[in-house]
Design a protein that fits this description.
The protein has about 260 residues and is mostly beta strands. The chain is about 5% helix and about 55% strand. Strands 1, 2, 5, 6, 7, 8, 9, 10, 11, 14, 15, 16, 17 and 18 form a 14-stranded antiparallel β-sheet that branches.
């Protein structure tokens, strides 16, 4: 129903990049948002938040489908009618109907500004059988509040089997290893109350590593992390950090698997 990633947005290769997959065979109407000024944690404004985010939506071949800086500049009425208009006029939003496939949202700062930003994708057609089947967010993983945080809302009435991954050493751009990749990521999975459900450092150390392997989605590098769980409908959050406060570019992913 909703996927999101909170990232430290910088410049160049260190902007916030969120990938998602629409599964099925029909089209899906979604809203993509880039948040910054309105971001809060426990009701308190997030320190160092991105003050003026910009948003681009790309197709699988890299072409820009649509872009936005300030959400009121385009689609204002449609965005307001969705009930998901950003709280600050400087934040960005795009409503679009897309066929099944892979897409990427890129969040940057206006005039190369930097800060903590939030990438969000909401399903505006919950009754449509097609789904948001995968989330991946790439960002520069730092320490403290500047780690990589992903959110996921599962809807419906039945449990879902979900695989979460935290990648670093295997992250590539156009087949080339990413410079400055996070060499040893760790992964935590929290429920909607913030309770830690499970954590993992090296995926082969997981109690269900054989099950992770059998999905065909085991991380390529043994230092990378994975959590495979069956989850009831609700809100979930993953946190990606570096072992011993190491830093670098990392990738957080969530795959909804067929039960």
């Amino acid at each position: 129903m909703n996927i999101s990633g909170r990232v430290l947005v910088q410049t160049g290769d260190k902007v916030g990049i969120g990938g998602f997959i629409i599964s099925g065979s029909a089209t899906k109407r979604i809203i993509v948002r880039a948040m910054g000024p309105s971001m809060k944690a426990n009701g308190v404004p997030v320190p160092g938040r991105l003050q003026d985010p910009t948003l681009e939506l790309h197709s699988n071949d890299g072409k820009i489908i649509q872009s936005n800086d300030d959400w009121r500049d385009t689609q204002e009425q449609e965005i307001q009618q969705s009930g998901l208009a950003p709280a600050d006029d400087r934040e960005s939003a795009i409503i679009v109907t897309l066929p099944a496939g892979s897409y990427t949202a890129v969040v940057a700062g206006s005039d190369n500004s930097t800060g903590i930003g939030l990438i969000e994708v909401y399903d505006l057609q919950a009754t449509n059988p097609d789904e948001l089947g995968n989330l991946s967010v790439r960002a520069d993983v730092q320490t403290g509040d500047n780690v990589l945080i992903d959110g996921l809302i599962l809807s419906g009435g039945t449990p879902k089997r979900v695989l979460f991954r935290a990648l670093g050493p295997s992250v590539k751009i156009n087949g080339t290893p990413v410079p400055g990749a996070l060499q040893d990521p760790t992964l935590e999975l929290h429920d909607g109350n913030g309770t830690l459900l499970l954590s993992n450092d090296n995926w082969k150390d997981a109690a269900n590593s054989a099950e992770i392997q059998s999905t065909g989605l085991a991380p390529p590098d043994d230092r990378e992390s994975a959590i495979l769980m069956t989850l009831t409908p609700g809100n979930y959050t993953t946190v990606v950090r570096g072992v011993n406060n190491t830093t670098g570019i990392g990738l957080a992913e969530a795959y909804k698997l067929d039960n």
